[in-house]
Amino acid sequence: MNAPAPQPLEATTILERHDEGGVTTLTLNDPTSRNSLSEAMLTALSEALKAIAADRSVRAVVLAAKGPVFSSGHNLKEMTARRADADRGRAYFTDILDRCSAVMQQIVTLPQPVVAAVQATATAAGCQLVASCDLAVASSAARFCTPGVNFGLFCSTPMVALSRNVTRKHAMEMLLLGELVSADEAFRMGLVNRVVPPGEELGAAQVFARVIASKSTLTVKIGKKAFYEQLEMGLADAYRHASAVMVDNMLARDAEEGIGALLGKRQPRWEDK
């Protein structure tokens, strides 16, 4: 009797990558830990995002997940085990939270836009992961929650991304009540862009990504970077910065081509420069 064929790497890794037509789909694939942001998952995400940032063939990214949970957030079993350390886990907690925060910032600073495809519940740092993405599509079965307050650990780091996505009152509602929020409510709050029937979230997210991939990558890169930079500025500084960015953008070859195509009533031919 022949031995079974070995499983391909993509079938066993906790983070799968699929590339097609300028769109990279990263899929969390650790359902036994509820796709927690474990040490291994954070390392895999960080390495994948670093590689994508340097890959000129990637024009947009979709972040998806397999299993009954999108992501449950930090791996509390890993963290609790370190309470046995001499410092009761302080050094480990500091390191893991710094690593998680770095991954969230990698998403924000990634040149390519990132679209979350949320098939199920996203809690704590899992909700933070969704909020860190540029766009998000949710299944109507998805739920969102920052439940730390329920077990004595306020979701302070998820708060950073959440408060930059929704209004203060909505952010505080989620953080203080720690209750599950439906996909429709998340849409009303501004946490997600679209709510679709279960099973359609990945396809809908990939539609977003393919539309983005059809644009000039230079223009998208300039725009994404400027968007997040101006958010941290006062109104006058934001306008000064945006104006300077737009002048530089206007002088780029793709802007010249795009405007020429618009005036000439033809399709632009992007050079991504």
From TrEMBL:
GO terms for biological process: fatty acid metabolic process. SUPFAM superfamilies: ClpP/crotonase. Keywords: Fatty acid metabolism, Lipid metabolism, Lyase, Transit peptide. It holds the Pfam family ECH_1. It comes from the Bacteria. GO terms for molecular function: hydro-lyase activity. InterPro entries: ClpP/crotonase-like_dom_sf, Enoyl-CoA_hydra/iso, Enoyl-CoA_hydra_C, Mitochondrial_ECH-domain. May play a role in fatty acid biosynthesis and insulin sensitivity. Belongs to the enoyl-CoA hydratase/isomerase family. This is Enoyl-CoA hydratase domain-containing protein 3, mitochondrial.
